[in-house]
Write a structure and sequence with these properties.
The protein is an alpha+beta fold and 62 residues long. The chain contains two helices and two strands. Strands 1-2 form a two-stranded antiparallel sheet.
Length: 62
């Protein structure tokens, strides 16, 4: 179920990729490609669910 919710959230978020601009107040953030989008959820059991649009290194994971 978590994987399905994560995929739905990722699909929803993709709609907004080009509506803003890449944050540049931290130089490394300014280098990010605005169409690269990823989502990672880590459970209490330390299981990771990752979805990303490109095979790329991402600037920020929260």
């Amino acid at each position: 179920m978590l994987e399905e919710v994560a995929k739905d959230a990722w699909e929803y978020g993709r709609k907004f990729l080009l509506q803003g601009k890449v944050a540049d107040y931290i130089p490394e953030l300014g280098k990010a490609n605005p169409v690269h989008f990823g989502l990672c959820i880590k459970t209490e059991e330390q299981k990771k669910h990752k979805i990303k649009s490109f095979n790329a290194t991402y600037t920020v994971f929260m």
